[in-house]
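Supplementary Note 3. Input sequence used for the single-chain structure prediction.
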Amino acid sequence: MKKFPVWCWILLGFLGFAGPAISQPIFIDQPIQAGDLIVFPHITDTTKYYYLPNKLGLGTDAKGKIQFSFLRYVQNIKTENGEANRTEGEGGGILHTLVELKVTDQQIAQAQAELKKKVKRPNAVIVGPVIYKGGNFSLVSSFAEEGSEFTKKVVGVGRAPVFVGNKAACSIRLTKLGSKILWESCKTPTPDLSFSFVMDFSGYRSPMQAKIEVDWDKVYSHEGFSAGIGINTGYVGLGVDIKAAFDELREQGAIKVTNFGADDKMEALLETAYKKIVDMMFEPFSMPAANDQSTIDQIARGINSIAEGAKKNASLVSLNFAYEMKKQRKTGKFVIDLSKSTIETISFRFDENLGSDVSKCKDCFRQINLDDPLYKQREILVSVDGLNADQFSKYINFVTVSMKKDHGTATATTDEVRIAQKEFQDAAGNPFRLLYGWKDNADYDRDAWLKYKYKTIWSFFGDYTVEKDWSESDNLGLNLAPPFHPVSISVEADPNLMKDAGIRLATVKFYYDYGAGEKVEQVTLRGTDPAPAQLAEFMLKQGEYDYDYEVVWRMFGNKTLTSGRKKSSDTLLYVDEIPESAKMVTN
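The predicted structure, written as discrete structure tokens, is reproduced below.
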């Protein structure tokens, strides 16, 4: 039976533990396999290394028991007039599990011993983990297709945990047939339940004696960029298709990669060049609003067609590897200088099967008869997506989620949760919960009982509020995203050029407005830094990419120059050259 992932709405908002804005001081292009772990060297201290937490396991509670449950249920149904006698009731199953990033002390100790042998340094030490900036997880299973003969609902994709020990949750509501088959599959050594994690982390790429020249007009006119999924979001394509288009554009001269160094570095150089261009042209593809079902169906059909064409390249095609072209296109020619250390964010994928441990947990499997509706209740899991803890505390005062359940009578159930900074941090990646139960005979219609209404109110600092309308849903989880999106701008410089130009330090101020009035984000590069590069992160309204910025150069001799306020949408700024239009700042 064919297996493929299905992408649904997010159950947990793990961005509350997203990585810091400033990248870790590691060279990401110098990985070392040490035992079961991959480690990266510090950019200046040759004795320090950081390990990549790329191991998964079933979540465990405080007592060490695995956090996995599989419930099969049956509901007795009377035979209706004109029907043949029923010999079976209606039923199904609910599977819920937690999976966590799990690296043991033994694995770290073995990796450190192996590292010392490989680098031939007895004082080499693994000082800690690489901190992920974020990432996604997805369920890979024959039971992951929502609406199939096996499965009714799936919450099997979401923001992944970024720290070792943090967890991600998956929940599946199965049909009667699906619950029977998966019940038996869980008794095998390799049950049909696997997870795929695609995680992002940042670091420094070693300088390369090379440059990249891009003719944007020719790049955008390539026929490959008009063959993506035909949806109202514009071009959406897989990374493998974009790379193929870049290869053709390089042969045609629209993308020129000049290598002044060794030929054996050309493959790594092309990888770096393509990554830079992708970051400037595209952004990771994101699903539309949950209530826009027609668009979701259209995307699903498009993704399936792409998957058929990509079978030769991979057996698993997922949205984690899809990119959406930015609406604002670039023109003219652009040169990217790679002769200095640059900050890059890379994606790393790893997969794991739940394994045979689930079959050993007898308490994890239960079968019940739903013959007493009085005890029915339903929890709606609420998570906040798109923000880490620092971003939440910086921009958001609180978000209120209200739920209203109509039972078909005059009495409705209401519930509400208010999420401020303290609640967001204390949740530790766990979802918030709304609750309703069974009221009276009107709730015997199980499909109708699963439906409820909800609305959100976002309160931002600066006395700015966004209130959404009531929406209807029957999803087990609500994933809430603010009406703005994060933007990351890499500010880079060559220390030699800064020294030659007499630049002591360069300060870049970014001006932005996500709806609460103009705000300022600032980063500073010093000529004495071993790798002058910083990452500025701020927020813009959804669909907007333009921002204003100003560069202020502090020169030797107590002289200050300014670029004046400029507008841009680039994700990369160089500040090691002073333009002729720069003006003197007078005190």
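Confidence is low (pLDDT under 50) at residues 1-22, 287-320. The two ends are 74 Å apart (CA to CA).
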